[in-house]
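Researcher: Let's run the pair from yesterday's discussion. Sequence first, then tokens, for each.
Model: Starting with the first of the pair.
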Amino acid sequence: MIPIITIDGPSGAGKGTIAQAIARELEWNILDSGSLYRLTALAASKEGLSLDNEEAIEKLARGLAVKFESMPQGLKILLKGEDVTEAIREEQVGMMASKVAAMEGVREALLARQRDFAKAPGLVADGRDMGTTVFPDALLKVFMTASAEERAQRRYKQLKEKGIDVNIAALVEDLKLRDEQDANRKVSPLKPADDAIFLDTTSMSIEQVTEQLLELARQRFSL
């Protein structure tokens, strides 16, 4: 059985950063599931598809030409050969992705693709329903969160470092709206798995969270 660590939680909780750190340390594969929905949303936008056209977006998701390349600075994400690593992180794409992720047909289309990432020596998967829907048998499940204000501050810092001018109050409202959409969607709503470890990272550093999860992994998988 392939060892799997799932890290679920709301946008801005630090799931991606921590998942990459854990995967690098353990030398395991990584799945950034949220990027698949962002990629679908971006591809739909590029093709001029309306978010009301669920059938067309489902078809798009099934044939998504995606490639992940592990780089020293993180994951490089390609869509039809184009580097869209930064483009899919834009706030507008994130809001679109939240709506796309609520589509049952799209979630079904991407489910098998996500499970294909589970290969030796192990997998670290981050997203919104990794522990509840995609990998329900994972031996280590974590639900990571932080206050909306702290998550907005982290996002604000990231965007400012990239030279993007943003409003902190608007970021807080966007995150709260996205949280509401994710928690109340009909298909795979955002919630902790029954056997998940709940971790509030509001007052924790990246190093503290990483070390805590590594210790949990060492115990759970006898590493």
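Model: Moving on to the second of the pair.
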Amino acid sequence: MNLLKRYGFILALFILNCYFLFVTKKLKQEIEIKNDSIIELCTEISALQPQFNAGLINVGKSIEASTEIQDTNGNRLKLKELFVNKKTKMLMFCRISERYCHECCELTVKKLLQSEQNFDIEKLIFLIDSSQRAIKLQVKDFNLYDYEVYNCQFLNIPAENVMFPYYMIVDDSLTVRSIYMPNKAAFNLPIDSINLNLMYKTLIGQ
């Protein structure tokens, strides 16, 4: 009888220990999930802050009407002419430069081209700050053969001083209607796609 009690006590301790391990593991998993959520939230906030700041100082700004661009063959035209030729009220520009971090430019282009929204190719234009001699190499490097690409040295808006690639919606008066500077840390987070989709809605909402 004493032996039976002893084994019963040992069995109870074993079951209690297993239960304790199970609860501990579950709590640890919940803590890890919450920590991941907090990290993701912090990353999203860090991605939204530059977006808010960029919008605050760029939206409503007008690009100079005299701004010149060049196509890949070196033909010069005014940025304003893109709207005349396309007969559209708004265009989306992806702005990259040789002066910016190459990896950031690559991610910016990749994110845009892989976006879940199918941006109208007729309204999507790439403005690259590059030497004219290297512009075709940029097209090859970023695989932009199916898109309109122009060499544009400088735009008179605050976004140019950040030295980071960005997207913007510009209307036919050359006024910035929306702008987004992507964040490398948020590249795979939903917030990045949400911001792009909002830009797309601005683009088609004309």
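Researcher: Give me one sentence on the second I can quote.
Model: Residues 2-58 form the longest helix (57 residues).
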